[in-house]
Specification:
- The protein is an alpha+beta fold and 249 residues long.
- 27% of the residues lie in helices and 40% in strands.
- The chain contains five helices and 13 strands.
- A hairpin with a 5-residue loop joins strand 6 (82-91) and strand 7.
Length: 249
């Protein structure tokens, strides 16, 4: 049985409508703050895709009004489930922009858990978009994804391992300084800019880094604005670091 849902949020961003449009309506722009590797055909009726760890999701562009409105909708599944996304852009005096996001659709039998995850995730993603536009305007990031199973460890134990590897103390709080990362790469030296019960995020001079600590798993979504060498190699290096950190003795 399906359940309808709608999540609506609004945020003010330190960027022009044109900059916000580039960030939400182009593949490289979305790569720089959201999840996965993205492609968006610049037309109504085009295809938008997101690849995360080899899992590809597609949607149809149902509205494409540059600088003003973008809408996407996934095809319904066998049970009728689908998701729709609408982004509305409005410029403000002083060069800022108001972005309104509406995420709606139909969820399945486990709708409550999925709805709660979506509702808690969107404020974080919009915060990351703000960080991107405020600190890396005009730059494009190489997305880095990684996931490591953590056996029967609790979210608190997963968080503690991540914190220790990044010279952080628990509870992790915004404003704390992090230091660490894979051997041989430029050391991650940054500030905690978000921390909640599910994730924490760091900003350094050359990247935005996110670590999710779930039950029995750790996931990372990074956006590297100055990756050393091949971004694919950077992803492999970070994946190894994550696996060693979570699964080590």
């Amino acid at each position: 049985m399906t359940h309808p849902f709608e999540i609506a949020l609004e945020t003010t961003l330190p960027a022009t409508p044109e900059q916000v449009w580039e960030a939400i309506a182009t593949g490289p722009g979305v790569d720089s703050w959201f999840m996965g590797r993205n492609e968006i055909e610049a037309r109504e009726g085009g295809t938008a895709s997101m690849d995360t760890g080899g899992h590809r999701e597609e949607s149809v562009v149902t509205a494409y009004d540059p600088g003003s409105r973008l809408a996407l909708r996934t095809s319904p599944g066998a049970d009728g489930r689908f998701m729709a996304f609408e982004y509305l852009i409005e410029g403000r005096e002083g060069g800022s922009t108001v972005l309104r996001v509406v995420h709606s659709g139909l969820l399945g039998d486990d709708w409550q858990d999925e709805y709660d995850a979506l509702r808690s995730g969107w404020p974080f993603h919009l915060h990351t978009l703000h960080e991107y536009l405020a600190h890396f305007p005009g730059r494009i990031a190489a997305p880095v994804f990684g996931m490591a199973p953590a056996a029967d460890r609790t979210p608190e134990q997963v968080q503690a391992r991540l914190a220790d590897a990044l010279s952080l103390t628990v509870p992790i709080t915004a404003g704390a300084r992090a230091h660490g990362g894979p051997d041989g790469d430029p050391v991650l030296d940054g500030e905690v800019v978000w921390a909640d019960s599910e994730r924490f995020a760091l900003r350094s001079a050359d990247g935005l880094y996110t670590f999710h600590h779930g039950s029995g798993v750790a996931v990372m979504f990074h956006h590297l604005f100055a990756p050393a060498g091949d971004p694919a190699e950077a992803e492999k290096t970070w994946q190894q670091w994550l696996s060693d950190t979570i699964q080590g003795a």
